[in-house]
Protein backbone atom coordinates (compact mmCIF):
# COMPACT_ATOMS: atom_id res chain seq x y z
CA UNK A 1 0.00 0.00 0.00
CA UNK A 2 2.88 2.37 0.67
CA UNK A 3 4.76 1.57 -2.58
CA UNK A 4 4.94 4.32 -5.20
CA UNK A 5 2.64 6.84 -3.45
CA UNK A 6 3.23 9.36 -6.23
CA UNK A 7 1.35 7.23 -8.80
CA UNK A 8 -2.14 8.40 -9.79
CA UNK A 9 -3.66 4.94 -9.27
CA UNK A 10 -2.38 4.72 -5.68
CA UNK A 11 -5.32 4.42 -3.26
CA UNK A 12 -3.82 6.66 -0.59
CA UNK A 13 -3.33 9.76 -2.68
CA UNK A 14 -5.37 12.75 -1.59
CA UNK A 15 -7.16 12.88 -4.94
CA UNK A 16 -8.34 9.28 -4.70
CA UNK A 17 -9.30 9.71 -1.05
CA UNK A 18 -11.43 12.75 -1.87
CA UNK A 19 -13.04 10.90 -4.79
CA UNK A 20 -13.94 7.97 -2.52
CA UNK A 21 -15.44 10.33 0.03
CA UNK A 22 -17.49 12.09 -2.65
CA UNK A 23 -18.72 8.75 -4.00
CA UNK A 24 -19.71 7.59 -0.53
CA UNK A 25 -21.54 10.85 0.19
CA UNK A 26 -23.32 10.68 -3.19
CA UNK A 27 -24.34 7.05 -2.61
CA UNK A 28 -25.68 7.95 0.83
CA UNK A 29 -27.72 10.82 -0.62
CA UNK A 30 -29.12 8.60 -3.40
CA UNK A 31 -30.06 5.93 -0.88
CA UNK A 32 -31.76 8.53 1.31
CA UNK A 33 -33.68 9.90 -1.68
CA UNK A 34 -34.73 6.37 -2.71
CA UNK A 35 -36.00 5.61 0.79
CA UNK A 36 -37.88 8.92 0.81
CA UNK A 37 -39.59 8.09 -2.49
CA UNK A 38 -40.51 4.62 -1.27
CA UNK A 39 -42.02 6.06 1.92
CA UNK A 40 -43.93 8.68 -0.10
CA UNK A 41 -45.30 6.04 -2.49
CA UNK A 42 -46.41 3.85 0.41
CA UNK A 43 -48.09 6.82 2.05
CA UNK A 44 -49.95 7.73 -1.15
CA UNK A 45 -51.04 4.11 -1.63
CA UNK A 46 -52.38 3.90 1.93
CA UNK A 47 -54.19 7.20 1.51
CA UNK A 48 -55.83 6.03 -1.72
CA UNK A 49 -56.91 2.75 -0.15
CA UNK A 50 -58.43 4.57 2.82
CA UNK A 51 -60.33 6.87 0.49
CA UNK A 52 -61.75 3.96 -1.51
CA UNK A 53 -62.69 2.14 1.68
CA UNK A 54 -64.49 5.20 3.05
CA UNK A 55 -66.39 5.68 -0.21
CA UNK A 56 -67.46 2.05 -0.35
CA UNK A 57 -68.67 2.18 3.25
CA UNK A 58 -70.75 5.25 2.50
CA UNK A 59 -72.24 3.54 -0.55
CA UNK A 60 -73.16 0.44 1.46
CA UNK A 61 -74.84 2.54 4.17
CA UNK A 62 -76.96 4.29 1.52
CA UNK A 63 -75.53 7.74 1.97
CA UNK A 64 -75.90 10.30 -0.79
CA UNK A 65 -72.85 10.37 -2.95
CA UNK A 66 -72.21 12.01 -6.26
CA UNK A 67 -72.04 10.23 -9.60
CA UNK A 68 -68.36 10.79 -9.80
CA UNK A 69 -67.95 8.95 -6.51
CA UNK A 70 -70.13 6.08 -7.74
CA UNK A 71 -67.95 5.60 -10.75
CA UNK A 72 -64.90 5.11 -8.56
CA UNK A 73 -66.55 2.83 -5.98
CA UNK A 74 -65.96 -0.86 -6.50
CA UNK A 75 -68.54 -3.13 -4.92
CA UNK A 76 -66.87 -6.31 -5.93
CA UNK A 77 -66.46 -8.91 -3.26
CA UNK A 78 -63.00 -9.02 -1.76
CA UNK A 79 -60.72 -11.82 -2.80
CA UNK A 80 -60.80 -14.82 -0.50
CA UNK A 81 -57.93 -14.87 2.00
CA UNK A 82 -56.94 -17.24 4.79
CA UNK A 83 -57.93 -16.41 8.36
CA UNK A 84 -54.95 -15.41 10.52
CA UNK A 85 -55.63 -15.90 14.22
CA UNK A 86 -52.24 -14.47 15.20
CA UNK A 87 -52.42 -11.17 13.33
CA UNK A 88 -52.34 -9.07 16.52
CA UNK A 89 -49.32 -10.94 17.89
CA UNK A 90 -47.48 -10.63 14.58
CA UNK A 91 -48.29 -6.91 14.48
CA UNK A 92 -46.86 -6.40 17.98
CA UNK A 93 -43.75 -8.36 17.03
CA UNK A 94 -43.25 -6.18 13.94
CA UNK A 95 -43.62 -3.05 16.07
CA UNK A 96 -41.12 -4.39 18.60
CA UNK A 97 -38.68 -5.23 15.83
CA UNK A 98 -39.05 -1.72 14.41
CA UNK A 99 -38.42 -0.21 17.85
CA UNK A 100 -35.42 -2.46 18.39
CA UNK A 101 -34.06 -1.49 14.98
CA UNK A 102 -34.32 2.20 15.89
CA UNK A 103 -32.67 1.52 19.24
CA UNK A 104 -29.86 -0.42 17.59
CA UNK A 105 -29.35 2.39 15.08
CA UNK A 106 -29.09 4.93 17.91
CA UNK A 107 -26.64 2.73 19.80
CA UNK A 108 -24.57 2.26 16.67
CA UNK A 109 -24.47 6.01 16.02
CA UNK A 110 -23.42 6.71 19.63
CA UNK A 111 -20.73 4.04 19.48
CA UNK A 112 -19.41 5.40 16.18
CA UNK A 113 -19.35 8.92 17.59
CA UNK A 114 -17.46 7.77 20.69
CA UNK A 115 -14.96 5.71 18.65
CA UNK A 116 -14.32 8.67 16.34
CA UNK A 117 -13.87 10.91 19.36
CA UNK A 118 -11.14 8.73 20.87
CA UNK A 119 -9.58 8.06 17.45
CA UNK A 120 -10.45 4.36 17.28
CA UNK A 121 -12.68 4.57 14.19
CA UNK A 122 -11.07 6.06 11.09
CA UNK A 123 -12.08 6.03 7.43
CA UNK A 124 -9.87 5.54 4.43
CA UNK A 125 -7.10 8.14 4.32
CA UNK A 126 -7.92 9.56 7.76
CA UNK A 127 -5.56 9.54 10.68
CA UNK A 128 -6.57 9.18 14.31
CA UNK A 129 -5.99 12.90 14.84
CA UNK A 130 -8.15 13.96 11.86
CA UNK A 131 -11.06 11.76 12.95
CA UNK A 132 -11.31 13.37 16.38
CA UNK A 133 -13.85 16.13 16.94
CA UNK A 134 -11.35 18.30 18.81
CA UNK A 135 -7.61 18.07 18.12
CA UNK A 136 -5.33 16.90 20.94
CA UNK A 137 -3.77 19.45 23.25
CA UNK A 138 -0.33 19.28 21.61
CA UNK A 139 -1.80 20.40 18.26
CA UNK A 140 -3.88 23.25 19.65
CA UNK A 141 -2.79 26.86 19.82
CA UNK A 142 -1.11 27.37 23.18
CA UNK A 143 -2.75 30.72 23.92
CA UNK A 144 -6.18 29.45 22.87
CA UNK A 145 -5.74 26.29 24.94
CA UNK A 146 -4.69 28.28 28.02
CA UNK A 147 -7.66 30.62 27.58
CA UNK A 148 -10.04 27.67 27.36
CA UNK A 149 -8.49 26.07 30.44
CA UNK A 150 -8.80 29.37 32.33
CA UNK A 151 -12.47 29.63 31.31
CA UNK A 152 -13.14 26.06 32.43
CA UNK A 153 -11.36 26.69 35.74
CA UNK A 154 -13.31 29.90 36.28
CA UNK A 155 -16.58 28.15 35.48
CA UNK A 156 -15.78 25.37 37.95
CA UNK A 157 -14.86 27.93 40.61
CA UNK A 158 -18.12 29.83 40.07
CA UNK A 159 -20.10 26.59 40.31
CA UNK A 160 -18.22 25.60 43.47
CA UNK A 161 -18.81 29.02 45.00
CA UNK A 162 -22.50 28.89 44.11
CA UNK A 163 -22.81 25.47 45.74
CA UNK A 164 -20.93 26.55 48.91
CA UNK A 165 -23.44 27.44 51.67
CA UNK A 166 -20.74 29.06 53.83
CA UNK A 167 -19.96 31.65 51.15
CA UNK A 168 -23.66 32.35 50.73
CA UNK A 169 -23.98 32.87 54.49
CA UNK A 170 -20.99 35.24 54.53
CA UNK A 171 -22.42 37.23 51.64
CA UNK A 172 -25.75 37.45 53.44
CA UNK A 173 -24.11 38.58 56.70
CA UNK A 174 -21.96 41.19 54.96
CA UNK A 175 -25.04 42.52 53.20
CA UNK A 176 -26.89 42.61 56.51
CA UNK A 177 -23.99 44.45 58.22
CA UNK A 178 -23.92 47.04 55.44
CA UNK A 179 -27.63 47.56 55.83
CA UNK A 180 -27.27 47.84 59.63
CA UNK A 181 -24.47 50.42 59.28
CA UNK A 182 -26.53 52.35 56.77
CA UNK A 183 -29.53 52.40 59.14
CA UNK A 184 -27.27 53.43 62.02
CA UNK A 185 -25.78 56.30 60.03
CA UNK A 186 -29.23 57.42 59.00
CA UNK A 187 -30.41 57.42 62.62
CA UNK A 188 -27.32 59.36 63.70
CA UNK A 189 -27.92 61.86 60.93
CA UNK A 190 -31.55 62.22 62.00
CA UNK A 191 -30.50 62.80 65.61
CA UNK A 192 -28.08 65.51 64.50
CA UNK A 193 -30.82 67.16 62.49
CA UNK A 194 -33.17 67.09 65.49
CA UNK A 195 -30.44 68.51 67.72
CA UNK A 196 -29.76 71.31 65.24
CA UNK A 197 -33.47 72.04 65.11
CA UNK A 198 -33.63 72.24 68.91
CA UNK A 199 -30.61 74.53 69.02
CA UNK A 200 -32.06 76.74 66.34
CA UNK A 201 -35.37 76.89 68.21
CA UNK A 202 -33.59 77.86 71.46
CA UNK A 203 -31.41 80.50 69.79
CA UNK A 204 -33.33 83.16 71.73
CA UNK A 205 -31.27 82.26 74.82
CA UNK A 206 -28.47 84.81 74.97
CA UNK A 207 -24.79 84.04 75.44
CA UNK A 208 -24.66 86.28 78.51
CA UNK A 209 -27.30 84.22 80.23
CA UNK A 210 -25.40 81.01 79.52
CA UNK A 211 -22.19 82.58 80.86
CA UNK A 212 -23.96 83.74 84.02
CA UNK A 213 -25.31 80.25 84.61
CA UNK A 214 -21.82 78.80 84.19
CA UNK A 215 -20.29 81.27 86.65
CA UNK A 216 -23.01 80.54 89.18
CA UNK A 217 -22.33 76.81 88.90
CA UNK A 218 -18.60 77.39 89.41
CA UNK A 219 -19.28 79.60 92.44
CA UNK A 220 -21.50 76.95 93.98
CA UNK A 221 -18.84 74.32 93.43
CA UNK A 222 -16.17 76.50 95.08
CA UNK A 223 -18.41 77.14 98.06
CA UNK A 224 -19.00 73.42 98.48
CA UNK A 225 -15.27 72.72 98.26
CA UNK A 226 -14.41 75.41 100.88
CA UNK A 227 -17.09 74.12 103.22
CA UNK A 228 -15.71 70.60 102.93
CA UNK A 229 -12.13 71.77 103.63
CA UNK A 230 -13.26 73.85 106.65
CA UNK A 231 -15.09 70.85 108.03
CA UNK A 232 -12.05 68.62 107.66
CA UNK A 233 -9.69 71.21 109.28
CA UNK A 234 -12.14 72.16 112.04
CA UNK A 235 -12.01 75.87 111.21
CA UNK A 236 -14.15 78.46 109.50
CA UNK A 237 -14.51 79.09 105.78
CA UNK A 238 -12.78 82.49 106.16
CA UNK A 239 -9.71 80.83 107.72
CA UNK A 240 -9.54 78.34 104.86
CA UNK A 241 -9.78 81.15 102.29
CA UNK A 242 -7.05 83.13 104.08
CA UNK A 243 -4.69 80.17 104.27
CA UNK A 244 -5.24 79.44 100.57
CA UNK A 245 -4.57 83.07 99.69
CA UNK A 246 -1.34 83.18 101.74
CA UNK A 247 -0.13 79.84 100.34
CA UNK A 248 -0.58 81.18 96.81
CA UNK A 249 0.98 84.62 97.20
CA UNK A 250 3.32 84.04 100.22
CA UNK A 251 4.39 80.41 100.02
CA UNK A 252 6.69 80.60 103.12
CA UNK A 253 4.39 82.64 105.32
CA UNK A 254 4.50 80.03 108.09
CA UNK A 255 8.23 80.58 108.59
CA UNK A 256 7.89 84.36 108.52
CA UNK A 257 5.06 84.77 111.04
CA UNK A 258 5.27 83.95 114.77
CA UNK A 259 3.05 81.18 116.19
CA UNK A 260 0.51 83.55 117.80
CA UNK A 261 -0.25 85.14 114.47
CA UNK A 262 -0.47 81.76 112.82
CA UNK A 263 -3.04 80.78 115.43
CA UNK A 264 -5.02 83.89 114.66
CA UNK A 265 -4.90 83.11 110.95
CA UNK A 266 -6.13 79.59 111.65
CA UNK A 267 -9.01 81.01 113.67
CA UNK A 268 -9.97 83.31 110.78
CA UNK A 269 -8.84 86.66 112.21
CA UNK A 270 -7.55 89.13 109.64
CA UNK A 271 -4.14 90.65 110.41
CA UNK A 272 -3.79 94.41 110.21
UniProtKB/TrEMBL annotation:
Alphabetized Pfam families for the sequence:
Cir_N (PF10197)
Which InterPro entries is this protein grouped with? CIR_N_dom (IPR019339), LENG1-like (IPR039875)
Give me the segments passing through the membrane: none
Q: Where is this region: Disordered?
A: 150-197
Q: Does the keyword Coiled coil apply?
A: yes
Any coiled-coil ranges, and where? 14-42
Q: Where is the composition biased (Basic and acidic residues)?
A: 150-167
Keyword terms, alphabetized: Coiled coil, Receptor
Secretion signal, residue range per the UniProt entry: none
Key word Coiled coil present in the record? Answer: yes
Residue span, CBF1-interacting co-repressor CIR N-terminal domain: 8-44
Domain of life according to the entry: Eukaryota
Tell me what this protein is called: Leukocyte receptor cluster member 1 homolog,Leukocyte receptor cluster member 1
Organism of provenance: Acanthosepion pharaonis
Top-level taxonomy: Eukaryota, Metazoa, Spiralia, Lophotrochozoa, Mollusca
